[in-house]
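We now fix the convention by which a protein and its fold are recorded. Here is one such record, which you should read through line by line:

>
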Amino acid sequence: MSNPIITLKRGKEDSLNRFHPWVFSGAIASMPNNLEEGDIVDVVTHDGRHIGVGHYQIGSIMVRILEFGTATINREFFATRLAEALRLRQALRLNRDDNNAYRLVHGEGDFLPGLIVDIYGNTAVIQAHSPGMHFARTDIANALTSLEGIDIKNVYYKSETTLPYKAHLDPQNDYLIGGFETNVAIENGLKFHVDWLKGQKTGFFVDQRDNRSLLEHFARGRRVLNMFCYTGGFSFYAMRGGAELVHSVDSSAKAITLTDANVELNFPGDARHKSFAEDAFKFLDSMEKDSYDLIVLDPPAFAKHRSALKNALRGYQRLNAKAFEKISSGGILFTFSCSQAVNKDQFRLAVFSAAAQSRRKVRILHQLTQPADHPINIYHPEGEYLKGLILYVE
């Protein structure tokens, strides 16, 4: 072991023995005084048994394990992990002529905790969620452009809002390799503009791809309301599915502009679509009952931390109750939570409470989750963040 050593308290190695990749601050007995954010460290038990190597950072999660056992963390390490991640996406047939948008790296789910990489055509967008990944960004970018089986020409780094502010890293969003070519990507044959420069997350929510495809099969002849539409993903799938009309709602005027551009990209001049820059709750309050018979509720995370859980559950209940109140008889409700702090049982209970409040007969048709390019490390169940239900409302 040549890295700085972090020693655990007696009995605090149990979760690591089960390959959970986080070391919490309360588990640490001792560590060097001169450690800096992002340092590569070795983790050992109280009696000196080596467990793994990882990135150190200040906070509740103090070490994110990159390898259980020994490893040299360098460009070759990242190249190997990225190649393994790509093999999975190739097995899923996500890189096709009619689909060039997908997640290549999903943090702990791809054994690279603290790292997100989304692919949009020839551009990879990197988000670092740990100082260690921030300092490794050049090695990661170079490894991405060297991957066999995929042609990455541009690597954009977008971590200004994802890194811990206490680390004082002052990250700059910018191209690490290449530059801007086009922001149009393809998902299941549909085109969309991706705003990775100023948009949310990496510019598009690729985690809803499978759920958007499912909505397409329910859309024929229906009047569709897409709440919290962001860039309109569900909207143009509904249009391709034969919806009678599609209304897209988001509080952000910029998001609505992007939605309109995406609809025009796929269905130029189609009068079935209309968009509204308006608060979701105000829109639901003001709309007439029976105006829509397919509603999508895909709000931003109501709870980013467990301290906000109680209010978040109230928010999900209130939102879904309003949809149950207004949706037509025989309507379909797609409802989601992307809050990692809200587990699927808590979300389901909030939706159940909303259904009971409405006193309508409601049946679950599908229980939804994140797609396979957002894999869940079996030893890290916290990686299951996206929950969804498709409901039939009599």
User: Anything to note?
Assistant: The two ends are 64 Å apart (CA to CA). The CA atoms of residues 376 and 384 lie 6 Å apart. The chain has a mean pLDDT of 94.
